Amino acid sequence: MFNLNTIIRENIKSLQSYKVWRDDYLDNSDAIFLDNCENNFGSPIGIGYERYPPSSQSKVKEAIASYKNTNSNQVVIGNGSDELIDLLIRCFCEPKQDNILICEPTFGMFKVYAQLNNVDVLNAPLVKETFLFDEKLILKTTTPNTKLIFICSPNNPTGTSISIEQLKTIATDFNGIVAVDEAYIDFSKKQSAFELISEYPNIIILQTFSKAWGLAALRVGVAYGDSSVIEIINKVRPPFNINSNSQELIIEALNKSEIKDTLVESILKQKTYLENELQQFPFVKNITESDANYFLIEVSDANEICNYLLEKNILISNRSSLLNCKNRIRISIGTEKENKQLIDILKQYN
């Protein structure tokens, strides 16, 4: 049975979150702000940039919560999902004592942030060749000091997904946080795990505006979960981690979500085209079935193909150094023009 109090770091339990009192007065036109040592005269690029952004992020949180049909106290925003991964580890993992569990090959930043926080990393590898998740192996690999299980679904770089039933099994039998990174969920026909947060208080869903929304430059990631867990993350979150422009532009984008949906449809259409074309090449040995906007492809010589394309100013990702990914490359879905150019150039490859 999950018990939040048993997995929070002791120093975090007593931590007082940094309170920015001015948030209550930001909409008051008569307020004079002399509290944060800012340049009240303006800036080289004009008035409006001299103020720190709203720390509570209440407006953008409410907009996100409304879009997701949830409560704003179940939302925490990060400077990209990367920051949220770091915050989760800092909230729940005691350095030199606790560990996290990942399923390799997977998103590299899980391990990076664990190492930065001096936290050990356990690995329950994806099934070789199919790159599917093994929930029994995941639970078997955990130890009493495992505080976080990171599940990337659809997984980067394989594009494979974990099932809802598998997640339920893991969350039920694990007294820790199950963080499901759904950065690519908008491209998938599989069910999101989002609905599980109302039933399982130890499940956290990570999503982002960097992929399907096309807003990578804004660096905005979101975590959804039980309000008690979100409250802990908010205690550790830096008060001004999301700038004002990003907050305003996310609200604008949410009001135009139908454009995002149209863009996703275009990407999926090109995904079908690209897969059909790539399967014709003799150097393509296997294309892993993908729920994301990319393919993990086994080829005859990954280094040679990557170098060949780089000479033509086409950048793809060589994933050969990852576990069980020898001679595998990852290709993102581009525009119709970009994909046709890629195929034409690959036709010249010998």
Description:
The chain has 350 residues and is α/β, with parallel strands linked by helices. The protein has two domains: 9-19 and 53-255, Aspartate Aminotransferase, domain 2, CATH 3.40.640; 258-346, Aspartate Aminotransferase, domain 1 (Alpha-Beta Complex). The strands form two sheets. It has a seven-stranded mixed β-sheet with strand order 1-7-6-5-4-2-3, with helices on both faces. A four-stranded antiparallel β-sheet has the order 8-9-11-10, with helices on one face. The model has no long low-confidence stretch (mean pLDDT 96). The chain is 33% helix and 15% strand. The chain is globular, with a radius of gyration of 22 Å. Helix 3 (80-92) crosses helix 4 (109-116) and helix 9 (257-278) packs parallel to helix 11 (336-346).
Whole-Å distance between the termini?
Answer: 57 Å
Whole-number mean pLDDT: 96
The CATH architecture name of the largest domain reads 3-Layer(aba) Sandwich
Helix content: 25-40%
Major sheet: order of its strands?
Answer: 1-7-6-5-4-2-3
> Which radius of gyration do the C-alpha atoms yield?
22 Å
Specify the biggest β-sheet. 7 strands, mixed
Query: Uncertain regions: pLDDT < 50 for 5+ in a row?
Result: none
CATH level 1 name of the largest domain: Alpha Beta
What is the CATH superfamily label of the largest domain? Answer: Type I PLP-dependent aspartate aminotransferase-like (Major domain)
Order of helices and strands: HHEHEHEHEHEEEHHHEEHEEH
